[in-house]
């Protein structure tokens, strides 16, 4: 069965602070010494496209072992209508992808290599994941199998339930979790307060999150660091790529 282009496009996965560079060992070595001409942004997978979003970059620091901080750059993508694209961004239609491969090993950061055709020529690039950890469920290399299923029209996508109105607390929570990143309850509360200029009670925010879990819109993660974590429910079911 072919893709129904009349149906709304669906965001399937998102990975922030992804490095884009040329494929191959040489490019990897060049990048390690600051010579690779690489860029850093957010990688988004939909049921129709693989999109590298580079515009309107934000910077965050990631603590490593409690001693040093790694600077990470990403573009905020909360919906398919809010992708800040610039000249360094890249959009690849699933239909033109010729080959996709995922790599991950003890000395290899999770990465995704993509080859596609454009204007009658073959093109290739690779995307390298920077945010890792034992708590992750999926990594960038896991995207390869899902993209192959998309190419073969073998992927079952479950449309999400209707989202609450954006002027409700539940709708605002869905807005800050639209980037498909797992976030603790305190982070959700802070982001809603900052974006909508409101003052919230943590218990009220938690109750709203639990309501969204019951509605099938959010997934509740394991509690850790004395916090409860939530993420947007994936339309991929068993193929969920949520980190």
Would you mind describing this structure in some detail?
By secondary structure, the chain is of the alpha+beta class. The protein contains 5 helices and 12 strands. The chain has helices spanning about 25-30, 145-150, 170-175, 185-195, 200-215, and strands at about 10-20, 40-45, 50-55, 55-65, 70-75, 90-95, 95-105, 110-120, 120-130, 185, 220, 230. It has a 7-stranded antiparallel sheet. The protein has a 3-stranded antiparallel sheet with strand order 10-12-11. The protein has a two-stranded antiparallel ribbon with strand order 4-5. Strand 11 (about 220) and strand 12 form a beta hairpin. Helix 4 packs across helix 5 (about 200-215). The radius of gyration is 18 Å and the shape is globular. The relative contact order is 0.15. The model is unreliable at about 25-35 (pLDDT under 50).
């Amino acid at each position: 069965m072919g893709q129904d282009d009349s149906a709304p496009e669906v965001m399937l996965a998102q990975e922030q602070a992804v490095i884009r560079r040329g494929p191959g060992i040489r490019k990897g070595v060049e990048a390690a010494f600051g010579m690779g001409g690489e860029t850093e942004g957010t990688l988004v997978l939909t049921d129709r496209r693989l999109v590298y979003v580079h515009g309107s970059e934000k910077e965050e620091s990631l603590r490593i072992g409690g001693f040093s901080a790694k600077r990470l750059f990403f573009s905020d993508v909360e919906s398919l209508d809010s992708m800040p694209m610039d000249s360094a961004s890249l959009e690849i239609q699933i239909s033109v992808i010729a080959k996709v491969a995922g790599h991950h090993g003890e000395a290899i950061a999770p990465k995704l290599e993509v080859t596609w055709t454009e204007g009658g020529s073959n093109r290739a690039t690779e995307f390298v994941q920077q945010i890792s950890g034992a708590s992750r469920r999926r990594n960038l290399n896991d995207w390869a199998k899902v993209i192959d299923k998309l190419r073969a029209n073998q992927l079952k996508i479950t449309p999400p339930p209707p989202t609450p109105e954006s002027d409700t607390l539940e709708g605002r929570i869905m807005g800050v979790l639209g980037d498909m990143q797992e976030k603790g309850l305190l982070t959700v509360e802070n982001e809603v307060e900052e974006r909508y200029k409101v003052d919230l009670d943590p218990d009220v925010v938690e109750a709203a999150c639990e309501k969204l879990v019951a509605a099938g819109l959010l997934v509740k993660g394991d509690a850790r660091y004395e916090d409860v974590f939530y993420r947007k429910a994936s339309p991929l079911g068993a193929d969920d790529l949520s980190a």
